[in-house]
Structures are given as structure tokens and as C-alpha cells.
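Shipment paperwork, digital attachment
Item: protein structure file
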Amino acid sequence: MKISQAKAEDLDRLMTILEDGRNQLAEQGIDQWQGDYPNRQHIKEDIENGFAYLVRSDDEETIGAFSVVTPPDHSYDQLDGKWLIDTDKYRTIHRVAIHSNHAGHGYASQLFESFITYFQDEPDVDSLRIDTHEDNKAMQHLITKHGFKRVGTLHGVYRENEESYVYELVTKN
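Attachment content:
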């Protein structure tokens, strides 16, 4: 698996992957991403800010996408909970999707292992943060399987009446 920062010319590819992710969630009856989030403008801004990444298989086929947001991440301004550590040296993982054509091959787990390994060696990162919809049990399992601890809940941040569970992994002791 190879990870590369997305460029402006990757916008359509990113949107295709995220729309496939939206469809996968809908097929599972999960209301996450069923509104206007994430939209083309979000992803364009991710690319412009250097937050968006593409995931490729070893044979160079694009299989997924994600974003890593630098602080401050205002998505968490209304966190109902408490961080494991009080720091402004964190990164937030958002908009993770593996295309349905590549599901079931362990790519999501490999991706999480890559995040963690990379950021454990980054001196300016003390923790990783992530959230997911209350009904997205598969993502919740993936997150906790890789050592993240649930630290709180977001109420209506992405869409009215929607709850998301928030997790953190301390990368430095």
C-alpha cells in the first residue's frame, strides 16, 4: 500500500471514492455522509490545505482516500467529553474511505497502522483524533481495534440530530 498527498487533478478521483463510501454507508442503513458532507468544496479545501491523501495498492490502483487535518480542528469545539491529553499538537483523521471494489482485503487496517506508525515518529504530534457516526459499528470497531479510546460525543456537528463518537490515541508518553 502506498499513500500520497492528493493534488488538484485528483479531485474527481477523491470524490468518486467518497461517493462510493457514501453509497456503502447507505446500503448498510447508516445515515453518515447522507447529506451535504463531505462535499466537493470540503475536498477541494482539503487538497488546497495539504490535508487530502490517496491510498494506492502496490500495483498503483487507487483504492481509498482520507484527510489528516492540522489543529485547530473546529469540528471538536463542542465536544461533549474530555481529551486524554490537553494538547494542541494533534492531528485529526477525517473522511476515511476504501472503495467498495477493494473492501475486505484489510486495507483499512493497514491504513490505520500506517497512520499510527507515521505519527508516533513525528515530534510535533502528541495524539491522533477521529470520530465516526453513532451507527457506524464497523468504523468504531476499526478505531478501537487500533488502540483509540472513546473520549466523547459530538451532537449535531455534521448534521442536525446526528451524533458522532469521538476517539483519541496518545502517540507520545
